[in-house]
Amino acid sequence: MIGMAAMDYTFLLSKNDNICFDILSRFTQQTDQTLNKEELAQSLSLTNYQLNKYFETMNADLAVVSEGSPSYLDEPNKGMWQSFGLTSYILQKVTLLYLNRAPLFTALEYEFFYNHLYTKKEYVANNYMSSSVFYRSLDSLEAVLEKHHFFQASSLYAGKEFTVRLHLFQLYYTLYNGVSEPFEPLNPLIDDMVSAIQAELPHTLSPTQETKLSTFLRIWLLRMLNANSIGTDQQLQVKASASKDAMMKKLQVLLSDQLELTEEEFNYLYSFLIAQGYLGFESMRELAADIPAVDELTKQFMAEMQANNVLLTTHLIDDNRLEDSLLSIHFQFTTFYIEPTTFINPEQVQFFAELYPSFDVVVSHNITKLQRREDLHLTQKMAVNLYFSYMFALINAIPTELMRDKVHICVDFSQGTLYTNYVIQSLSAFNHAHIIIDTQLADDTDIYISDFHSKKVTQTQVVWQDPPTPVDWSNLADLILDVKRKKLPELFPSQDSNNE
After folding, report:
1. Which string of b and e fits 385-418 if b means at least 16 CB within 10 Å?
2. What does the pLDDT look like over 55-86, one tens digit per residue?
3. Alpha carbon 122 to chain centroid distance?
């Protein structure tokens, strides 16, 4: 069963650092990066004295993580705080600072990576921390993790160890990514392991892929060293191949001084590589064939496309391209589902709903069906991320010509083809908004763009007597969205055009 609540690892922070993180996060969400001190005090139930103490603490923390130009808070006007140089990257760095000084996080690292290697007393001595604080944190850790659904599976094919590893990976990948590497003493070995894996992959890993793999390997290796084997939790069985065997032998040699790499553990790693698309689509298709839910979810989505009749015809669709994208989405969703940290903003959904109203109908209907399933309990982040994944799959696979909600724009400048072609080329910025560009006025023209108004044209007219400015383009975009809104009730009578 997929987790009911979003995994937000800031619960590991100490109380005071969590408040600091909350305040700093609020700055980054404001375009002017200012906060009203009185409103902040009321919102957080803090006194003025407490706020001022946090102000000093945050500035000290920002000074520690600043690079080059300083990051700091100031009060240029009485009662108004303003941040300077506080970027999302700096916020990530200060969050990592808070995490690494959190007693609960120290307890978590001991419990999941070192409890079979060191006694509690040895670990406390090695980490120069208070025994009482450590033992208290360790005693409360399991209850805290239970409360935040840490042990609740986030994919259909996951036992306890599979789930623990996936959530540990998510924690370290989310909070360390781009800032520093967790467990830095492992760096030389991890670099060698990445090189060994890369040698058997069909394509060179991108920087983000390499970072993800590196983090995954650290969690994988430390869990094995701590005698936490994957065992029967790994339900995905990868077929033998020359490349797979070669990769396993290289890793066995690299790890021979540390541990014995079993077939089960390598199978787990290889399944991750497939799920992330590192081994090509055919490998994913082959492994997905053993997962009935993948095919079921893909067929359900394709049926939704047919049921909502969003296309003029269906026989010209590149079904394979769309189905391949859906298979990839559903394979990751049902196996190594890593709760997303990007493309999860529900406010951005409205933009795509307006730009692609017919796709929005299909995607929204399908997600609603998933939310009703007893075995799939989507968090808001998961639902929003799925929305974008489905939307991008449709945009990339279905040509504008097949859409029922396309917008016809006629471009006709009196100065001739040079001017007309310039505008047509510039309109390529809107080429994913289901727009058809014509040079002849027709009955199905929705918008007419020219350098002069014409009494013979009954359609909506846009007049550009000079090269279009950013404001002109913005107004055209609004007009395109308005045309789409007006078409929606006619194309999909059951939909509410004001609430796509």
Report:
1. bbbbbbbbbbbebbebebbbbbbbbbbbbeeeee
2. 999 999 999 999 888 999 999 999 999 999 99
3. 39
Kindly state whether residues 157 and 277 are assigned to the same domain.
yes
**Measured CA distances, 496 to 228, 349, 364, 491 (Å):** 52, 16, 13, 11
Does residue 59 belong to any structural domain of this protein?
yes
State whether 44 and 71 are in the same domain.
yes
Please give the structure tokens belonging to residue 374: 């007893």
- Out of 131-140, 211-220, 229-238, 382-391, least confident range: 229-238
What is the count of structural domains for the chain?
Answer: 4
Same domain, 394 and 443: no
Predicted confidence (pLDDT) per residue in 266-279, tens digit: 999 999 999 999 99
- Cα-flanking dihedrals φ and ψ of residue 41, to 5°? -60, -40
Report residue 299 as tokens.
């067929």
Nearest to 363 by CA among 320, 325, 413: 325
Instruction: From 384, 400, 416, give the residue that closes a domain.
Output: 400
Mapped onto helix, strand or coil, the DSSP state of residue 439 is coil
Distance CA 108, CA 379 (A): 24
Strands 34-36 vs 460-463: parallel, antiparallel or unpaired: unpaired
Residue 414 has phi, psi (to 5 degrees) of -65, -20
Q: Are strands 72-77 and 80-84 parallel, antiparallel or unpaired?
A: antiparallel
* Range of the structural domain that residue 45 is part of: 10-99
Based on the domain organization, do 280 and 180 belong to the same domain?
yes
CA distance 204 to 206: 6
Say whether pLDDT at 126 is over 60.
yes
> Does one domain contain both 456 and 471?
yes
235 in a structural domain: yes
Instruction: Give the phi and the psi of residue 312 in degrees, each rounded to 5.
Output: -70, -35
Q: Do both 169 and 43 map to the same domain?
A: no
pTM of the predicted protein model:
0.81
- The torsion angles phi and psi of 263, rounded to 5 degrees, stand at -60, -40
311 and 244 share a domain? no
The reply to whether 155 falls in a domain is yes
- Mark whether 281 and 296 lie in a shared domain: no
Say if CB 125 and CB 238 are below 8 A apart: no
Sheet holding 34-36, edge to edge: 34-36, 80-84, 72-77
Last residue of a domain, one of 372, 400, 428: 400
Beta bridge partners of 463: 450
Rounded to the nearest 5°, which phi and psi values hold at 110?
A: -65, -50
* Residue 170 included in any domain: yes
Report which listed range, 40-49, 301-310, 408-417, is most confident.
40-49
Asked whether residue 498 carries a pLDDT value surpassing 50, the answer given is: no
